[in-house]
C-alpha cells in the first residue's frame, strides 16, 4: 500500500469521527462559556474535553502530514486544514468534506455548484458568528466598561460586524476581544461577499425560473 | 386537463387578486402599527384582515403545492413563494409576476433585462425597508432604553442599515427587534448589491449613450 | 434643418455656457450656506443667482425636449439630464460631456476607458460629497440636538457616509437632513462601487506595468 | 549606453537599498511616535532620519525622471511611484518590485497570479493600517475630546475603518486626523475589495481542491 492510498484510507476512516469530535468540541466550549452557574467540576470536564479533542485534532494533522510525504509543502497546500488546527472552533467548516463523502457513497445527484456555494458559505458565516460571539463574550464578560453584557449582546454584535453595518452600540473593549473581532471582520467580509453575491444571483434566477424563462447568464 | 395546465390555470386566475390582497395586507398592518390613536375596534379590524389574508395566502400555497404534483420537492424549487408565505409582509415582492403577466397580455416589448433588474431590486429594497421599519418599530416602541422613538426614526434606521452605513444613533434594543434587524441586514445586503451594481453600470451606460458612443461591455 | 440636427446644434452651442452656469450655481449656493456673516443683500444676490440659473436649466431642458421630438419617451432616455434638472447641485456631473466635446475638437487621443471611468466616478463622488455636505449642513445648522456644528463636521460626515463606514459620531437629526442623507447613501454607494472597483483594478495594472509584464486580464 | 538601459541599470542597483531605506523610514517614524519617554535627543535623531531619507527618496525620483526622458508624461505613467514620494509611509508598498527582482535572479517558479494578488493586497492593507494608525495617533494624541487614548485604540480604529465596519467608539476629532482618515477610507476600500474578493475565491478553490475536484472557474 503506497503513501497516497494510505492517506486516502486514513481520511476515509477518520472523516465522520472527526466531524462528530468537532461538534462535541464546539458544544463543550459553548457549555463552558454560557453555563455560568454550572458546578465547577463540570467546567473542568468541559475544559478537559476541549483540550483533549484539540490533541486529537493535532494528532490527526500530524498523521496526515506524515502520510502525505510532502514535507513542508503540506502546510501551504492544506491551508484550511492548518487554520482549523490552530482555531479548532472553526473546525466544523470541514463539514463540506463530510457532505461530499456521504454523497459519494449514496450516489445521489449533487446539488448545483450554485446551491453548494450558497449553503456552504452561509453555514460558515453562521458558524463564524457563533464561534466568534462565544470567544469575544468570554473575553469581554465582566471587563470594566464592557458594553457586551449578555450572550445575546454578543450575537447581535457579531451580526452587525459580519454584515459590516457596525452600529457601535455594542463593541469589544478588551485587547483580546478586539483581536478576535478583527479576525472576524476579515474572515467575515470574505465569506459574506460570497454569500450575498451568490444569494443575489440566486434570487434573480429564482424569479426568472418562476416566470418560465431562461435565467440570466445561463 | 392535466396537473400542469391546471396549475397554470390557477396561477393565471389568482395572480391579480393575490397581489391586491398583499397590498391590503401591508396597508392593514401599517395602519395597525402607525395609527396609534385609532379606536380599538379598528385595530381589531386591521388585525382580523391581516390574519384572514394570511390564511388566504397559506391556502393558495397549499393548492399550488397539490396542483404541482411535486411532493416535498415543491419547497426548494419554490423558495421565494415559501418565504413570502412565512413572511407575508414581503409578499408584494411577487409584483414581478404581475408585471410579467400584464405585459404578456398586452404584447408590448419588455424592458431590457438591465432595466428590469434595477426596477425590481430597487422596489424590493424599498419594500424591505418599509416592512422592516414597521416590524422593528412595533417591537421597539415603548421598550425601556429604546432609541427609536418615532416611525421616522425607524425609517432612518432602516436606510442606514440596508446601505450598511450603520451610524448607530438609532438601534434596536429588544430581542425581537434585533432578530428582525439581522434578517434585514442579510436580505438587504443581497438586494442592495444587486441595486447598486446595476445602477452603477446603468450610470456608465447612460453617460456613454448620451455621448453617442457604444456603451462599454456591449 | 431637421429636428435631429437642430438638437445637436443646440447642444453644441449651449454645452460650455451651461457648464459655466452650473459652476456658478454651485458657487453661489456654497457662498449662501457658508458665508454666514455676509451682509443680507449678498445673501439675496446668491439666492437670486441660484434661482435664476435654475430657471435657465429648466428652460434648456424644455428646449431639448421639444427639439428631440420624442414626447414622453424623452424622460426615461435622458434620465441623468432629468435628475440634474431636479437636483441642480449635481449638474456639474455633466462635465463628462464638456470633456468629450473639448477632446472631439482638439482631436487628441482619448484617455483609456479605464482612466475615464475612474476620473469621472471619482469626480462625481467628490461633487456628491461637497453638494451633500452643503445641503445637509444647511438643514442641520442650529437644529436642536444637532451633532454637526461646523462645515468641517459635515464634510467628515459625508466621507464616512459615502464610504459606508458610518461612525455615527456626527449624524443628521432633522427630517430634511435625513432625507438628503438617504439620497447620498444610495447615490454614493453606486458611484463608490465604480470608483473603488476601477481603482483596485488600476492599482493591480500599475504594479504589473511597472514590473514590465503584461497586466492581468489584458 | 542609451537612456532606457541607464534607467534599468539605476533601478537594478537601487532597488534593494531603497527598500531597506523605506523600512528604516517606517521604523524611525514609528519610534518617534510611540516611544514617548525616549530622551529628546533620540527624537531628534528619528526626525533627522525620516527627513534625510525623504530627501533620498525625492532624489531617486528626480534621477529616474531625468533618466526616463519622458518629461511630464513620467508623472501619470509612474503614479504609484509619485504617490509614495509624497506619502513615504506607504513606500514599502513597493516590496512587490523587490520580490520580483529577487525571484528573477533566483529563477524559482513564481507564485500563481492568484496568490501574488492576495499576498500583495493583504500586505498593503496591513501596511496601510499600521502607517495610518501611526499618523492618526500622532494627530489625535492629547487633543481635547479625543477618544483615541492609546496606540491600541488607533489600531482598533484602523481595523474597523478599513473593513468599513465603522463602530464609531473610537474616532478622530482633529482636522488633520480626519483628513488622514478619509484617505485611509478611500485607499482601504479599494485594497480591501481586492483582498476579500481574492480571499473569497481562494477559499472556494481550496475547498474544491481538497475534495479532489476541479476548482470552479478553472
TrEMBL record, chains A, B, C, D:
Coiled coil: none
InterPro entries (alphabetical): K_chnl_dom, VG_K_chnl
Keyword Transmembrane in annotation: yes
Compartments it resides in: Membrane
Residue stretches spanning the membrane: 16-35, 41-63, 75-93, 113-137, 179-204
Example of a GO biological process term: monoatomic ion transmembrane transport
Broad class of where this protein is predominantly found: membrane
Domain Potassium channel span(s) in chain numbering: 139-204
Domain of life where this protein originates: Bacteria
SUPFAM superfamilies membership: Voltage-gated potassium channels
Stated name of the protein: Potassium channel family protein
Source organism phylogeny: Bacteria, Bacillati, Actinomycetota, Actinomycetes, Kitasatosporales
